[in-house]
Each structure stands twice: as C-alpha cells, then as structure tokens.
Amino acid sequence: MDKDIKKVRAHLLISGRVQGVSFRYYTQDIAQNLEIKGWIKNCWDGKVEVVIEGEEEKVKKLINWCYRGPGSAIVEKIDIKWEEYKREFNSFNIRG
Question: 7-87 belongs to which CATH class?
C-alpha cells in the first residue's frame, strides 16, 4: 500500500427523498467497488446517515455520488463532518 495516499473519514447526514429509493443498497455497492469501509442507515427523521473511511479521492467520489443518489432519490442537502481517520471498519455495511 502506498503510504503517500491520504486516508480520511467522513460522517454524512443526507436529507431529501432518500428513504424508500434503495439509497442504502446503491451506496453500499459503490462503496464496495471503491474499497471504502463504513456503514449506512436510515434515520427516524427520514434522513440517511453514512460513516465512511478510505482513500481521500475515493471518499470524495462516493460523496459526489451521494449528491445525486439513485434515479428516484431527491437529495436536498448533505451535512458533512470530516473526522479523524480511525481504521475502524473491515467492510461497508447497511445498518438497521
């Protein structure tokens, strides 16, 4: 592994029509293809919460995709909090 590649962690709260549109499943598929680790879940208030870790460029690619989401999603807003990379996850999973 290249030690010069920057690893990052991001915590996202995605608002809009993002539940009931397979947002979690598409995100999981893309995250796995990009070798991003973390999790995604639906929140009680209709938002989707995502915590991701990986190479900075790949994490940014996934975040950019989240602004569009799957075809039937309407993403209104994403709150992004950058956190310290923790190497906490072994895979990307759907929770709850």
Answer: alpha beta
